[in-house]
Write a structure and sequence with these properties.
By secondary structure, the chain is of the alpha+beta class. It has 11 helices and 14 strands. The strands form 3 sheets. Strands 4, 5, 6, 7, 8, 13 and 14 form a 7-stranded mixed β-sheet that branches. It has a 4-stranded mixed β-sheet with strand order 10-11-9-12. It has a 3-stranded antiparallel β-sheet with strand order 1-2-3.
């Protein structure tokens, strides 16, 4: 059986009341109205190369047509929260699971049929989210600017004077993965949160990148010597020719998964459940490993990447309940220095 990303048929994502079917076999166009029960409204913070093959195959297999809205994790979650139970979308796809914990009041509990196949540490206790893929945090450095023997190997080294103002880091107020990086730093350092935040902001000279992708671009271009990012993002950049290298922190790192959850007030609940079942299926999980540089959350699926990775005991619940407080403190620190 051919895996789905090799199939010829292409189906365009539904963005209105009609859908255009295209096929490698014919150039004929057919306009078909979208029946309400066959719709699914998805908010996603994933990049196009992640969501596109998954959504196209979901549409093809189920006959459910997806209306897609993209944006940063924080802004999409805020939009859901503003709805306060009124219909905004059916499902949120993307963003670290600690963000789902912080917004759990806006998600409808659902335990997927493969829950027992998901790694135990990534199963939601209340069913408010389903983990999608495992995403280690790594350091990166520009090979032309930094010798491999001088590259930082642990979290404490980010505070060295030699790196001050030369670290790329995405804005955690916009990027869910950058928030995960910030909490990983806090938990790895074992200091008071505000002390860690102030020291790190000083190391950045109070300047952040627009997002996680932009942070990698800054290191790739030589604008910054080192940076923090996801393993997935770094590997994709290297595949695309970026002259950078990856360091897995010797004192450990987090591997917090991104998630997916059904929004309270959904108009298409059964379709949303089908989507969750689909993304934790073997086909999509294998796609994530083979083509997307991600790690599966399933216990028995073969993985790729550095198997010697030391994993920190990242406290997801703490990260979720303290999210607003940490981000507020961070915003205040950056704003005060920017005056």
């Amino acid at each position: 059986m051919k895996v789905f990303w090799e199939k010829c048929k292409v189906i365009t994502i539904c963005l209105g009341m009609g859908i255009l079917f295209s096929s490698c076999k014919t150039t004929q166009e057919v306009i078909t109205p979208v029946v309400e029960e066959n719709k699914l409204v998805v908010y996603t913070s994933h990049k196009e190369e992640v969501y596109e093959p998954i959504i196209k195959e979901f549409e093809e297999r189920t006959g459910i047509w997806v209306e897609l809205h993209t944006g940063g994790t924080s802004e999409l979650l805020e939009e859901i929260a503003k709805g306060n139970g009124e219909f905004t979308c059916d499902i949120m796809f993307g963003g670290g699971i600690e963000s789902y914990c912080a917004y759990s009041d806006y998600f409808k509990p659902y335990v997927c049929s493969r829950n027992n196949s998901i790694k135990k540490q990534y199963r939601s206790k209340d069913g408010s989210y389903t983990a999608f893929t495992e995403l280690p945090i790594v350091f990166i450095y520009n090979n032309k600017l930094v010798d491999s023997g001088r590259a930082p190997t642990g979290w404490q080294e980010l505070f060295y004077q030699s790196w001050q103002g030369n670290i790329a880091f995405g804005d955690p107020l916009k990027s869910g993965s950058s928030y995960t990086m910030l909490v990983t730093l806090i938990q790895a350092m074992g200091m008071e949160e505000d002390v860690t935040l102030k020291q790190f902001a000083r190391a950045l000279e109070y300047k952040v990148s627009a997002g996680s992708k932009e942070a990698v671009d800054e290191v790739s271009s030589g604008a910054k010597a080192i940076g923090l990012t996801l393993e997935e993002t770094a590997l994709k950049a290297i595949d695309n020719g970026a002259d950078i290298s990856i360091v897995y922190p010797k004192d450990g790192t987090s591997t917090v998964p991104d998630g997916c959850a059904i929004v309270i007030g959904t108009k298409h609940e059964e379709n949303a459940k089908q989507f969750i079942e689909f993304i934790v299926g073997d086909d999509v999980q294998q796609l994530a490993v083979d083509r997307l540089h991600r790690r599966s959350v399933l216990e028995n699926l073969q993985q790729t990447g550095d198997e010697s990775l030391k994993v920190l005991n990242y406290d997801v619940e703490w990260a979720g309940t303290h999210r607003e407080e940490i981000l507020k403190s961070w915003a205040n620190i950056i704003a005060e220095q920017g005056r």
